[in-house]
UniProtKB/TrEMBL annotation:
This protein's name: Cof-type HAD-IIB family hydrolase
Superkingdom, taxonomy of origin: Bacteria
PANTHER family the UniProt entry points to: PHOSPHATASE YKRA-RELATED, PHOSPHOSERINE PHOSPHATASE
GO molecular function: hydrolase activity
UniProt source species: Lactiplantibacillus daowaiensis
InterPro entries according to UniProt: Cof, HAD-like_sf, HAD-SF_hydro_IIB, HAD_sf
Amino acid sequence: MVARLAVFDIDNTLLARNKQLLRSTVTSIQKLKQQKINVAIATGRNLRLARPIIKALDLQDFILCNGSAAFANKQQVHQQTLSSANVAALVAAADEHHVDMIFESLDGLHAHTKPSQATRQVLHDFRAPLPDYAPDYYRSHPIYQAMMFYQPDMDAKLPHADEFSFVRFAQNGVDVIPRVGSKAEGVAKLAAKLHVDAKDIVAFGDNDNDREMLRSAGIGIAMGNAEPAIQACANLTTTDCDHDGIQNGLKAIGWI
């Protein structure tokens, strides 16, 4: 039997806009497992934030922090963190321009600044807990990614080290991740461990941080709620996350 892998973004992909799993999505995941198809999430969330979905769907494989960490059978098989020197330079610029910054470890969020109301709203929208206040956390811990909270016109005022990618996930929110640490990279590391060829991977996503994953998978499926530019990265577009997008996409390719 050829090994296959189905990979899903979480927010507005696996989860509907109300942050709940549709019954059709849960049933579809169960059908994949019954066929011995590997099922994984690929998310910008860290392990703490992804754990409710991992538990709800009983997953063994997961890609976290936008691809900077990958786990196969719940064992870490990939790690890519941000360099301390470039993080320090970015912190200095954020401080100068009064930009909120939060660091992500595998198990937590650590705020360099006291979150403003605008930052709190972004965290609330994504059902993220308020981080602990640890302004010097980045000095002595590995950082998988950072979140910065600013409008697009601030981009030009911040240093963009070659090793970093800045990926906007909200009007007022940006993920800072290793340039080589995209979800696609995490998927590739997981697939290698599971002995799955790229052509036998299907990936579902809806946002900017899913572009590379949708392009590199054997079959990339964009959600109907994705912007046209994201849909253009995929092989096909399914219905939206509120209207059985996972089930309909898997049916369209004959995986369920």
